[in-house]
Amino acid sequence: MKIIDAKVFIGGPAKNYVTLKIMTDQGVYGLGDATLNNRETLPAAYLQDYLIPNLIGLDPRRSEDIWQFFYRGAYFRRGPIAMAAFGAIDMALWDIKGKLANMPVYELFGGLSRDGAMVYAHATGSDLEDLMDSISHYVEQGYKAVRVQCGIPGMPTASYAVPEHKGEGKHYITDFAGIRPKVEVWDTDKYLRYMPDALAEIRDRFGPDLKILHDVHHRLLPREAAEFAKAVEPARLFWLEDPTPAEDQNALRMIRQHSTTPIAIGEVFNSVWDCNRLIEDELIDFIRIAVTYGGGITPVKRIVDLAGLHNVRTGFHGAPSHSPISMAAQSHLNAWAPNFGIQEYLVLGTPECDALFPSDHRMDNGMIHVSDAPGLGVDFDETEAKRYSYKPGSHPVVRLQDGTMWNY
Ligand SMILES: [Mg+2]
């Protein structure tokens, strides 16, 4: 059995999804997602210029060897561009493997471990009352877990994932006005003074059962993050996300020494080497690596297994930059993983998105139910794809009030 061709498509409804389709000489094909948010053309170029010419003629069933061939063969290892490109190939090869076995991919991991996988939605508000309305909207739809972000009084601009005006609802981060990013201005002191009481009010309003998550989005220094994690303990968060920039693994030790608030980190990680110490030293509670930037199912499943040995649960990244293909790959891991925690989920299910990526994966009452179709259980409509093309866009950058560049 041989790979005879592979194609890359860029585009989608309100997103630049990078979709890989690998064709075989037996008519079976596989799909993968290489979408690297706001840098989408780069993994696409890596696939087209280097990886696809080397894929042609290989046996698609040898997914482990093909992953090692590209990872070790590149000499310069890791990095989100390369890992997203490898990730798309790996997903497509697991898709082919499942179709050949006539089994959903989760069966190849060890089968279902649960009936459905809990997800969390994104509630957001220009101020706390606006946020309360947004949380109610999701609770009424049956969501059991909600990430909460709101405007901070006196903050110079709207900050991460917060709308500028009341009632704007969704805020999808990427701005397609052009390639130059908007600037958000950040004030740590105002955030630290306001947010702990706001989270406690949300807990009071919605009672003990709602799972409340909050994303700091890398804005704090390690000592500030430790202070904040301790200050939000009365809100009993399900998790506190990305309290500090992820590349400093020592920062997480400082937080752990001062607080029992559960910590989730890793959406920008692309290798086990970004998080092995965090997992082995049990400094985090949830690992957020994504199957796309993490290099595909093959390496991410190894991280899930390592995490399981140390009581670290999964909480895969699921921003709208993930196409339904990588969300499907993560859904298969979520269905199987004994240490599953939660899945981030932003509504992908628009009619346009469903038409481009038809599937039987379904969301019901705050839970994802994985399709039992062979492979990843998601298809790609090439006729529909002709409606879309690449649109340049950017997410904001962050500066302090004196102009110092800060962490987005
Ligand atoms: Mg996040």
Task: Describe what you observe in this structure.
The chain is α/β, with parallel strands linked by helices and 408 residues long. The chain has 2 domains: 101 residues, 2-Layer Sandwich (Enolase-like, domain 1); 268 residues, TIM Barrel (Alpha-Beta Barrel). The chain has 13 helices and 16 strands. The strands form 3 sheets. Strands 4, 5, 7, 8, 9, 10, 11, 12, 13 and 14 form a 10-stranded mixed sheet that branches. Strand 2 and strand 3 form a beta hairpin. Helix 2 packs antiparallel against helix 3. Bound molecules: magnesium ion. Magnesium ion binds next to loops. GO terms for molecular function: magnesium ion binding; mannonate dehydratase activity. Belongs to the mandelate racemase/muconate lactonizing enzyme family. GalD subfamily. Pfam families: MR_MLE_C, MR_MLE_N.
List the helices and strands and how they pair.
Layout: E1 3-10, E2 18-24, E3 29-33, H1 41-55, H2 63-73, H3 80-101, H4 105-109, E4 117-125, H5 128-140, E5 145-150, E6 183-186, H6 188-206, E7 211-215, H7 222-231, E8 239-241, H8 251-256, E9 263-265, H9 276-280, E10 286-287, H10 297-309, E11 313-314, H11 324-336, E12 343-344, H12 351-356, E13 362-364, E14 367-369, H13 382-385, E15 397-400, E16 405-406
Parallel strand pairs: 4-5, 4-12, 5-7, 6-15, 7-8, 8-9, 9-10, 10-11
Antiparallel strand pairs: 1-2, 2-3, 4-14, 13-14, 15-16
This protein binds magnesium ion (MG).
